[in-house]
Design brief:
Elements: H1 8-12, E1 19-22, E2 26-30, E3 33-34, E4 40-44, H2 56-77, E5 81-85, E6 95-101, E7 105-108, E8 111-114, E9 128-129, H3 132-148
Antiparallel strand pairs: 1-2, 2-4, 3-9, 4-6, 5-6, 7-8
Length: about 150
């Protein structure tokens, strides 16, 4: 993790407990509410509230982070599609909700995760809330895959 302090959006999504990986410009965190297994938030660490305000370095880093996210989630959940939602209506810091999309269900730690919106838009209102133990396990498992993907 980097020396930059977490912003409000990172904290809202459970930083530091939810962190899978961090770069100089981005924090990859498990989304505590899972509309599909493996859902993440990708939060910019720079103090910006509009996508166009990102530094050139943050844009360049975004490509690398997205490629790694897709590799990790592909191995972890076997998604068919992946959605990046930049909503920023409540949380002003630049961030994406990353939702791996799949038909059917995926099982994890004794729980069954359906992608209720498949094949349409993600059903964010039908997300499964993770308890602390499952969240910690998911973070640990995704971190291991992140490191293994290097």
């Amino acid at each position: 993790m980097t020396d930059m302090p977490p912003n409000a959006t990172m904290l809202k999504f459970g930083h530091p407990a939810s962190v899978v990986a961090e770069t100089a410009a981005w924090s990859v965190q498990v989304r505590p509410q899972q509309p599909a297994l493996g859902s993440l938030v990708l939060v910019c660490r720079e103090p910006v509230t509009a996508f166009g305000q990102l530094s050139p370095d943050a844009f360049a880093d975004l490509q690398k982070v997205v490629a790694r996210v897709e590799q990790v989630l592909g191995r972890f959940v076997g998604y068919h599609k992946i959605n990046y939602l930049m909503l920023m209506m409540v949380d002003p810091d630049v961030h994406f909700h990353v939702i791996p999309r799949y038909d059917g269900t995926r099982d994890y730690r004794g729980l069954s995760f359906a992608d209720a919106g498949w094949p349409g838009p993600p059903a964010l209102g039908q997300a499964m809330a993770l308890d602390a133990a499952v969240l910690a396990a998911l973070v640990t498992d995704l971190r291991a895959l992140w490191v293994d993907a290097t």
